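I hope you will forgive my troubling you with a question about protein structure. I should value your view on which stretches of the chain appear to form regular backbone elements. Here, with my thanks, is the record as I have it:
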Amino acid sequence: MKKQDYLKWDEYFMGIALLSAERSKDPQTCVGACIVSQSNKILSVGYNGMPIGCSDDEFPWDREGAPLETKYLYVCHAELNALLNYTGTDLSGSRIYTTLFPCNECTKAIIQSGIKEIIYLSDKYSDTDSTVASKTMLRASGISFRAYNPSGKEINLTL
């Protein structure tokens, strides 16, 4: 008899996004993303962090202050990193699992890439203009999005 409590696809891919988020050095918000093909193959992963060559010890991680003294003008979001980390040529019809609903800038890149579905864990910024704009663009472009429904399953990893 086969094992019955194996991970479902959504659990598996959101788990990969959550594990990817653990690579982030952001002290407040760690985000991970996982892009998956129509045939359930992982195509790329990403997490929020500084661009390559920009030391995460020298650039700011603050949320408050003058724009050039906060992280917002520097950090590359998890979704954009996953898109940029992809080494193939076609993401058409794929889906992205992300731990936080994508901002308007990442949403534009997601739309342009050909991704057809977004599965997100948190929508804590749902009332912001950025998220409202994201959802407006996604609806207009026919890309579906849905909240991940946590199963409550826990996995303990010893690394």
Observations:
- Helices lie at 9-21, 78-85, 104-113, 129-141.
- Strands lie at 32-36, 42-47, 95-100, 117-122, 144-147.
- The chain has four helices and five strands.
- The radius of gyration is 16 Å.
